[in-house]
Each structure stands twice: as structure tokens, then as C-alpha cells.
Amino acid sequence: MLTIYGVIRSRASRVVWLCHELGLPFEHVPVIQAYRLPDPDAQGAPLNTHSPSFLAMSPAGAIPVIRDGDLVLTESLACTLYLARKHGQPFGPADATEDAQMLQWSFCAATALEADALTLLFLHRPGRTQSGADQAAIANAAERLVRPLSVIEDHLSRGAYLVGGRFTVADINMAEVLRYAQGYHELMDRFPATTAWLQDCQARPAFQRMWKDRSAEPE
Ligand SMILES: N[C@@H](CCC(=O)N[C@@H](CS)C(=O)NCC(=O)O)C(=O)O
């Protein structure tokens, strides 16, 4: 059986969401980020990204990791793309063209969006007092996101989903990155097709199931 290592309050959410879409059973090992623990190296600390047994399996010391038979795989987007390709349509590619398009949107999410979207998530939390430096970082991140978001907006204005006219792994990979920026309305309100698509993705029962389990985890 497939094993997913990593609490759902992490990029493991992407893999869990896809598995629910696929109806794929998995064992879940809730390895937690070391930085979220007061003393990750203490005896009796929960299994975390510093734990020797976890590092022995995955020296990168990051979650998520999946194990599928003899394959141990890191990098959340590699995990989702692998599972989607393995299980085929509708969530995976029908052919090399769709495969390339799924890679394109996933790499776009990881390289053109993720870092700046995370800046918005961390610095624009409700109730957080922002320093001047924070405000500058938020403005810069939002400005850098305009160009890739314009490309996505244009694409989604002409079709409901990113690839093949159906919901696929590309939508999961992109939606989970754009979720980080979703609360920054000053930016997202400029992209109505993208906002509507994101809400549509998050209304799916598989996302809702993942989100319920994620919300049940300690903050
Ligand atoms: N590019 C990697 C990033 C993995 C990553 O940084 N994961 C975070 C949690 S979302 C982590 O494990 N941090 C470990 C730590 O800080 O101890 C991926 O997409 O899987």
C-alpha cells in the first residue's frame, strides 16, 4: 500500500487531495516539521523531520515523502505527478502532450508562484502586525505574482481547467500553491476567472475531505 509521510498541514496536502480524488487508499504517517516543535531532538518528541529514522529514509529532511513499493519519493509535485501518471486518466495525462502541459503548469506553480504566494500567506495573516519591511515584502511579492497570474487568468478565461478541459493533477498542483495567496484580496480580486476556478477546485469532495482532516490536526 502507498504510504504518505507528512502532516497534512504541509505540502503533503497536495498528495492527500490527489489520493482522495483517485479513491486510492494509503497509510498516513504524520511526520511533523521539526521547526514546529519546541525540542524536535528531545527523547519522546513526535516523529519529525529531524528524527533519525525519518532522515534514514529521506536525507532531505522534508515532507512530504511517499513510499510506493521500493520507490521512496520526495518533492510534493513529483509525488502527485508520479501518482497521476501511474493511475492515468482522468487526473493523469492522456498522452505526451497533456503530460507536458501538466508539467508546465506544475513547474510554473513551483517556480513562478510558490515563494511569493508563501510570503503573502506568512506576512498577511489576519491580526498580524506588519512592520514596514513586511509591507514592502508583501507589495513586492504581489507585484511579482501579477505576470504569472495574468497568464493563468487568460488561460482559465478560455476553459474551465488547466489541461484537457477536465480537472487534473495540474489543477491540484496549481490550486494548492495559489491557496497561499487566496486571502490577499487586493491581488486575487484582479483575477476573477482564477478565483472562481480556485473556489471550484476547493468545492470538490476530495479537497473538502483533505481539508477536514488537515483542520483536525493541531495548529
Ligand atoms: N519543494 C519541496 C518542499 C518541501 C518542504 O520544504 N517541506 C516543509 C513542510 S511543507 C518541510 O518539510 N520542512 C521541514 C522542516 O522545516 O523541518 C516539496 O514540494 O515537497
Automatic annotation (TrEMBL):
Mind telling me which Gene3D superfamilies this protein's record contains? 1.20.1050.10, Glutaredoxin (3.40.30.10)
CDD domains (UniProt xref): GST_C_8 (cd03207), GST_N_GTT1_like (cd03046)
Q: Which SUPFAM superfamilies match?
A: GST C-terminal domain-like (SSF47616), Thioredoxin-like (SSF52833)
The GST C-terminal domain covers which part of the protein?
Answer: 95-219
Show where the GST N-terminal domain sits: 1-91
- Coiled-coil residues are none
Among PANTHER family, the record links this protein to: GLUTATHIONE S-TRANSFERASE GSTA, GLUTATHIONE S-TRANSFERASE-RELATED
Name used for this protein in its record: Glutathione S-transferase family protein
Q: Which organism is it from?
A: Paracoccus broussonetiae
